[in-house]
Design goal:
Radius of gyration: 15 Å
Helix content: 25-40%
Strand order of the largest sheet: 1-2-3-4-5-7-6
Distance between the termini: 34 Å
Strand content: 25-35%
Structural class: alpha+beta
Length: 169
Amino acid sequence: MDDTRVIVRAIGESAGSAATAVINTAAEWYREFLPPSELHEPEMTPAGWAEEAQLMTWYGAFDGSDLVGVIGLEYAGDAALLRHAYVLPDHQRQGVAALLVNQLEREIEGVDTIIVGTYTANYKARAAFEKAGYQLSQDSEAVLRRYYDIPEDRLQSSVTYEKRLDRER
């Protein structure tokens, strides 16, 4: 991938089919560390994507005309949540996730804290967020309960990371 060709921009309802394809393809990775009882297939449906779009703004990473990664930005009180970060396997480890996260960090207004959650066993995502300057929350369960509405099984198997924005608002 030529990262000078990859652009990140907000995406709307018309991108739902392509976005869910990215999410469901990338989520195949979960089979490597989640027990079968915690897998949700598909990871996201088009209706679920549209429902989530009522809560957040979706962004896509495009390599040329191909959607290769997605992420959502949701405001929750005093924090911004980075949600549903997924990159197609063939485009991972090429900076796409960093481009998505960096774009959202520039978009955030009105809050100083960014929170992102992931599965405890998802070492790929955890390493990416740590590399981007996110720190493991002191009490991930409390953060998840305060800011997220997720099933209990996912809450128990997840951690959160936080980052404070240092720029002036």
